């Protein structure tokens, strides 16, 4: 495949290393199963195969379309739907996944009806709100919804879980993790259950896990960022022993000229509805690269050369290149945080190139 720009180069050997290393280190803390999250790479079948080959059985995503993409590439379940199902998609959820995260009894009833029509049993994990204020039933309501779920045919309650850090920034700690453990133990005792999963999500679980000897009843982790980027957006700036540079974004210089640092003329709204502000630094060697907000979050990328990112429009990245000799046609490589990787992998304008695939697929 001819390499063009912009492109994202994906080192499959580094992803495979991250998968094996994280499974080993989390396993030492009592985590018995992993769910590999593919939503950050739009259900990329190549990366899904790397996950599977290196020890992850269940793949999770937030979009039915991504499960269909993997199925079309020959990858079969078990799949888990991460985003709470909509009532309008219960048939598709049952048709393409074995598991889903849930918090609304009306949707679970819909899943039950869809599963009965399809002569199958759909497995449900009830999400519990632990403070991040995204999805989940309040802890005091968990028993009540459990009593409504258990009699339903076509669905089976196989676990409870929580999500932290994705919206409110709340981190796992002894208090909220102990609460999740005790809730699981309470359900198992009261209703004579054996939950398959007591699951936590988000790569920031590493900070808590490394500080504890045992995880109590928690035995499953849903993780994507750490497998793909080594958790580089954590306070530790990455999980020790993992690669954070498996993904490299590459753009090309399309203009390199000496210009003023402040626009002239009357300043109004920019293309995104903001009034920009500029610092007068005198003249500078301004670079334009062939990538923009349609393809990445420019605030979450880190150039591997000594340029300073000034801003971006839809299709252009502006940078101060005075400390480099970059010319038109030169390529610039960037490291990515999760948000930038997510958008770059979503963009149809960014070519995907796979490196070091031999032995990892």
Short description:
By secondary structure, this protein is α/β, with parallel strands linked by helices. Helices cover 27% and strands 24% of the residues.
Describe the structure.
The chain is of the alpha/beta class and 361 residues long. It has two domains: 12-229, TIM Barrel; 247-355, Lyase, Ornithine Decarboxylase, Chain A, domain 1. It has helices at residues 12-27, 45-53, 64-72, 90-96, 105-117, 142-149, 174-191, 205-209, 225-229, 338-346, and strands spanning 7-11, 33-37, 58-61, 79-81, 99-102, 122-127, 155-163, 197-201, 220-223, 247-259, 284-289, 301-303, 308-312, 317-320, 331-336, 351-355. The strands form two sheets. Strands 1, 10, 11, 12, 13, 14, 15 and 16 form an eight-stranded mixed sheet that branches. Helix 1 crosses helix 2 (45-53) and helix 4 crosses helix 5 (105-117). The two termini are 18 Å apart.
Quantity of strands, as a count: 16
Q: What's the mean pLDDT score?
A: 94
3D shape: elongated
How would a crystallographer describe the biggest sheet?
Answer: 8 strands, mixed
Helicity, in percent?
A: 25-40%
Q: Remind me, CATH topology of the largest domain?
A: TIM Barrel
Order of H and E elements: EHEHEHEHEHEHEHEHEHEEEEEEHE
Uncertain segments: none
- Report, as a whole number of angstroms, the end-to-end distance: 18 Å
| Cα-based radius of gyration, to the nearest Å | 23 Å
Our count of helices gives 10
> How many separate domains?
2
Tell me what portion of residues adopts beta-strand conformation.
15-25%
Supply the CATH class of the largest domain. Alpha Beta
CATH superfamily of the largest domain: Alanine racemase
Q: Which structural class fits the helix and strand makeup?
A: alpha/beta
**Architecture of the largest domain, CATH level 2?**
Alpha-Beta Barrel
């Amino acid at each position: 495949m001819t390499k063009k720009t912009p492109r994202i180069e994906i080192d499959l050997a580094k992803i495979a290393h991250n998968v094996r290393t994280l499974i080993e280190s989390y396993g030492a803390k009592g985590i018995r199963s992993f769910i590999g999250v593919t939503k950050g790479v739009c259900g990329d079948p190549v990366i899904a195969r790397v996950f599977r080959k290196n020890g992850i059985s269940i793949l999770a995503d937030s979009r039915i379309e991504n499960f269909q993409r993997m199925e079309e590439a020959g990858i079969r379940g078990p799949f888990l739907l991460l985003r709470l199902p909509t009532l309008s998609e219960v048939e598709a959820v049952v048709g393409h996944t074995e598991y889903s995260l849930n918090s609304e009894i009306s949707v679970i009833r819909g899943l039950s009806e869809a599963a009965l029509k399809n002569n199958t049993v759909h497995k449900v994990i009830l999400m519990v709100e632990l403070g991040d204020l995204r999805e989940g039933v309040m802890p005091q309501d968990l028993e009540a919804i459990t009593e409504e779920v258990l009699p339903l045919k076509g669905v089976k309650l196989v676990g409870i879980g929580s999500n932290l850090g994705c919206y409110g920034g709340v981190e796992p700690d002894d208090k909220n993790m102990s609460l999740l453990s005790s809730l699981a133990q309470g359900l198992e005792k009261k209703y004579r259950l054996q939950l398959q999963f007591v699951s936590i999500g988000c790569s920031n679980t590493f900070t808590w896990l490394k500080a504890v000897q045992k995880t109590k009843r928690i035995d499953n982790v849903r993780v994507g960022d750490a497998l793909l980027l080594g958790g580089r957006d954590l306070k530790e700036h990455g999980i020790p022993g993992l690669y954070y540079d498996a993904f490299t974004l590459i753009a090309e210089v399309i203009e390199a000229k000496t210009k003023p640092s402040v626009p002239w003329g009357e300043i109004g709204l920019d293309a995104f509805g903001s009034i920009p502000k500029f610092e007068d630094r005198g003249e500078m060697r301004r670079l334009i690269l062939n990538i923009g907000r349609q393809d990445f979050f420019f605030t979450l990328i880190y150039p591997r050369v000594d340029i300073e990112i000034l801003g971006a429009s839809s299709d252009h990245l502006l940078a101060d290149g005075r400390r480099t000799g970059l010319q038109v046609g030169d390529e610039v490589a960037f490291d990515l945080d999760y948000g930038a990787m997510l958008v770059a992998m979503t963009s149809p304008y960014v070519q995907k190139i796979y490196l070091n695939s031999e032995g990892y697929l």
